[in-house]
Amino acid sequence: MHALLVEDDDRMALALGTALAQRGHTVRRVGRASDALQHAREAQFVLLDLGLPDLDGLELLRRLRTVCEAPLIVVTARCEERDIVQGLRAGADDYVVKPFRMTELMARIDAVRRRTGAPSGDGPTGGRVRTGDVEIDPAGRTVTVSGQHIRLTRREFDVLAFLAARPGEVHSREEILDRIWGDAFLAASRSLDVHVAGIRAKTARPGLVRTVRGFGYQLGATGQEDGR
């Protein structure tokens, strides 16, 4: 795997680059947002620090997502809830706060790669699913509302497609986190809630993902009246 490491701190970049190389990855390290954008299209994976000298990291993340669909993990010292939520909403596949254990970061990289790789046999590979005026196409990875295309982040779509694969079932938080995040122990994390909120807001259909209090989520019935 070819990783793009966006990190302006030399010591941190050396530690991360060495750990990645030891696991058989090739690494291109850049320290500026402009260089990250230049090399983004060749990357198969991105590690992104938010504290860059030439551009705010969250803005870079938004720009990267317009040109690069590679799995991306934010690795940063920013630990405020607002930053974490903004990073996830902007398209990060995971968010790791410094300082961290290198073994944990490597495990998260492996988990993100598994989730964003080729679909497994039990994944949502069936036909289109329609609920009200919302249509979900797992194969094309598209969502439309009243015929209008809705742009979701990779993770938002993964959550929605997972629920749509078995629309009559209620899925626990642990099951969704294990399947989409690769880690059921993230049950205390707000990551799932942030992405569900993103789905509801972007589709303007708050009933599209139904909350089963104290348990999890289910694909909901919805229609135009949802957005009024």
From TrEMBL:
Example of a GO biological process term: regulation of DNA-templated transcription
Which keywords does UniProt give here?
A: DNA-binding, Phosphoprotein, Transcription, Transcription regulation, Two-component regulatory system
Q: Which residues bind DNA?
A: 126-221
What CDD domains does this protein's entry cite? trans_reg_C (cd00383)
In its keyword annotation, does this UniProt entry include Ribosomal protein?
A: no
Q: Which residues form the Response regulatory domain?
A: 2-113
Could you name the Gene Ontology cellular component terms for this entry?
cytosol; protein-DNA complex
The GO terms this record gives for MF are:
phosphorelay response regulator activity; transcription cis-regulatory region binding
Q: Offer one Pfam family short name for this entry.
A: Response_reg
Query: Domain of life here?
Result: Bacteria
Q: Which residues carry this modification: 4-aspartylphosphate?
A: D49
Question: What name has this protein been given in UniProt?
Answer: Response regulator transcription factor
Task: Say which species the protein is native to.
Answer: Streptomyces sioyaensis
Q: What is the lineage of its organism?
A: Bacteria, Bacillati, Actinomycetota, Actinomycetes, Kitasatosporales
